[in-house]
Write the structure tokens for this entry.
Amino acid sequence: MEAGIAGLFGLLIGSFLNVCIYRLPRDLSVLFPRSHCPECEQTIAWYDNIPLLSYLVLGRRCRNCGAWISWRYPAVELLTGVLFYLAVYLYGVTPVAVKLCLFSAILVELTISDLETLIVPDEFTLGGLALGVVTAAFVPMPSELVSLFTSLDADPRLVSVGNSIAGALFTGGTLYLVGWLYKKVRKREGLGLGDVKMIAMVGSFLGLHLTLLALIAGSIVGSIVGLAYIYAFKKDPATYELPYGTFIGAAAIVMGFLGPRLI
């Protein structure tokens, strides 16, 4: 029952994430005005804004103008609901599940936003980074780098926070260095700063070990999918921009749920 309630709550959070995905890259407020159709700008009534259900009842069209409603809206709601359900189903009503729900919601927003616009909003990358460090004090992270430089009787909470900060700085800094070297050699931007902030945020939640695994897995899958897309649609490999954050985000979600078991 608890997992089911978490899933329903996730549907509501997913509805809000849809607002963020559309508005934040366009520098619009996520609070005002109320939800409206992007085509006719008619305010959406509450009964037409029920997660998943309204999309099906309306036949995927705006009630006022008949414009098609993007598949992204129900997909984000369903994905967030499923992830919230799994977090509570696997870990119960615990701080670990709460942290995993927060992490999942942040990554769903960033993953879809990068896929649609190639923009990952600072509100979720930098805000998520701070949240990852804070939650490390309440949900201990695996001992990694910091534990090597602390005594055995050190406060576990401080060690956990230190690991969170170290994970963010090391992974984010490494990715920034890779992008800087690429720009020096190729004389053009190869990696956006948003991706660096995103991987630092992931590092603050997962720590160094799992973040490196997510980085490797996301890079491999992204390369394969990107090359296949370029070949299939005859894109120019020299100019095509791969939504790198999308693949990193997807890999990070997997590591968040399965990483501890894999380790």
Summary: The CA atoms of residues 46 and 118 lie 30 Å apart. The chain has a mean pLDDT of 88. DSSP finds eight helices and no strands in the chain.
